[in-house]
Amino acid sequence: MEQVKKSPFLQEWLDGPLPSADSIGRISNLIEPNTVRQAIHAIYAQLRRNKTIIAPWHGLLALVVDGHESHASYRRCCEGCLQREIRTEKGPRTQYYHRNVSAMLLGRDFEIFLDSEPQRPSEDEVATAIRLLDRLLSAYPRAFDLVLADALYTDPRFFSFLQSRGKDVLTVLKENQPGLLEEARTLSELTPVTSITEGREKIECWDLNGFNPWPQINKSLRVLHARETTTIKRQLDRKLEEQVSEWFWLTTLGSHQANSKAVVELGHNRWLIENHGFNEAVNEWEGDHVYKHQPTAILVFTLLCIVTYNLFHAFWARNLKAALKAKVTMRHVARCILQELYAGLNRPLHLPQPP
Ligand SMILES: [Zn+2]
Predict the structure, then answer these.
(1) 108 alpha carbon to ligand 1 midpoint, in Å?
(2) Cα dist from 252 to 114, 127, 210, 217, 219, whole Å
């Protein structure tokens, strides 16, 4: 920013001078984060008005929530830092880090982030997620029907909170709930299997009902056990090889809302927040960079990254023609935008003259 600050193009575009990088860092720590959240909401509301957010599966709009650790340091800390002991060669050391829980809305063809909430030093990730969802349910009451999350969220607090607010839940069931997992395995052996075949993939499903693991939940839960077999051709010797993976999902969704196949699809779409969301935010948008190590500034930069991510994805999904998108990558489109910006910044371009 310091390098391009004096550009007349930027002055004209912003209708005033660009503040210094220092000022932007300092001011970011003074901004009320909810004002940036309102900007995210305004983009969502416009997309919704334009009917661009369409439920992809069986009329269900899903929200994924997940935690993401942005950075860790042994040296720098602030009052918003979480801390843990790390064993090193020189003995145990205190490491400081920040973790946010973010929410991503899954529409047909594209996903947008709706919000992010920092985990506080005194709480666990589930408590942060509940605070995030409480705010989202007020700001976006009808934006989603169910919440998808990983095994960490297979927790009575999470299920009872969402049930009390009239939303469905689907989480991964793993060894962190050993009793429930064992019960599901046993019941699978007594239940007939149904098979779904799609291309090279075969899914064997055991759709199990009547689970009451926690007294806080006054509704029987459903477990879907799936064994997925994919046939792949090995690159080395071109031989066919079978890959098998096994999944258990715990959900409040009844079979009238989502059949076995829909539950499997929804369950796998949980990864979109990691594979598309966090991965792209970090690697393409510098989402984890700490521009200013102060808790509000870190949150404000995360929320600004969400604004950028959503605008770019809305542009890609809705403004570009399918024929163009088949030929170019997202990164190419981003570079074209950057090129236009730089061309404006450097009018006329001062290129070194050949000797
Ligand atoms: Zn910190």
Answers:
(1) 36
(2) 23, 20, 11, 10, 8
Q: What separation in Å is there between the alpha carbon of 78 and the centre of ligand 1?
A: 4
CA–centroid distance, 74 to ligand 1, in Å, is: 11
State how beta strands 194-198 and 146-149 pair.
unpaired
- The alpha carbon of 5 and the centre of ligand 1 are apart by a number of angstroms equal to 28
| Centroid of ligand 1 to alpha carbon of 71 (angstroms) | 9
Give whole-number Cα distances, 62 to 50, 112, 222, in Å.
19, 11, 18
Q: What separation in Å is there between the alpha carbon of 292 and the centre of ligand 1?
A: 9
Q: How far is the CA of 86 from the centre of ligand 1 (A)?
A: 17
pLDDT of the chain, 355 residues: tens digit per residue: 788 787 777 888 888 888 888 999 999 999 999 999 999 999 999 999 988 888 876 789 999 999 999 888 898 889 999 999 999 898 999 999 999 999 999 988 889 999 999 999 999 999 999 999 999 999 999 999 999 999 999 999 999 999 999 999 999 999 999 999 999 999 999 999 999 888 888 999 999 999 999 998 988 999 999 999 988 888 888 888 889 999 999 999 999 999 999 999 999 888 888 888 889 999 999 888 888 999 999 999 999 999 999 999 999 988 999 999 999 999 999 998 888 777 777 665 445 566 6
CA of 284 relative to ligand 1 center, distance in Å? 23
Ligand 1 centroid – CA 117 distance (Å): 14
Quick one: DSSP state of residue 151? G
Whole-model pTM over 0.70: yes
Please report the sign of the dihedral spanned by the C-alpha atoms of residue 249, residue 67, residue 39, residue 130.
positive
Query: Measured in angstroms, how far is the CA atom of residue 94 from the centroid of ligand 1?
Result: 13
